[in-house]
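Internal tracking record. Fields below are filled automatically when a chain is submitted to the structure queue. Please do not edit lines marked as system-generated. If the sequence contains nonstandard residues, flag them in the REMARKS field before resubmitting.
Queue: standard
Priority: normal
Entity type: single polypeptide chain
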Amino acid sequence: MTRRKSKKFAEKHGPHAKPDSLIQAEILKHAKNNALPCAVTFEIAKDLGIAADLVGMTADLINFRLIKCQLGLFGYYPKKKMITPHTKVDPDLKNAISEALINEQLPCKSAWEIASRFSIRKMAVGGACETLKVKIKPCQIGAF
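SYSTEM-GENERATED OUTPUT FOLLOWS
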């Protein structure tokens, strides 16, 4: 079964935004089926010495789907999310998440930093946020 490519990701960047040719070439080298995993987006950014959101924006502009969020929030098939709520959230983790909130949302970058600080998987932070009903936003690659 193939998924339909119904969304126009480029639209969120306005009519005058154009893809960077160097970034586009790297995306084309690494992407499969017009989809670019989050982890690969960060690898490309690191290799080119640029911010990951520029790679995400270029992927949008060439209408490639960003997939396999490292926090487990989007881009998994057949389900969209990979994470499930935890039955219990460690109080220290809960406090770290609460302290990092900006306008009642946890920035993706902060979620990654919390995962590093607690030596846990990024998806564990995503699962904790799911349990705590905390929305993770903004995404470092611009997916949300």
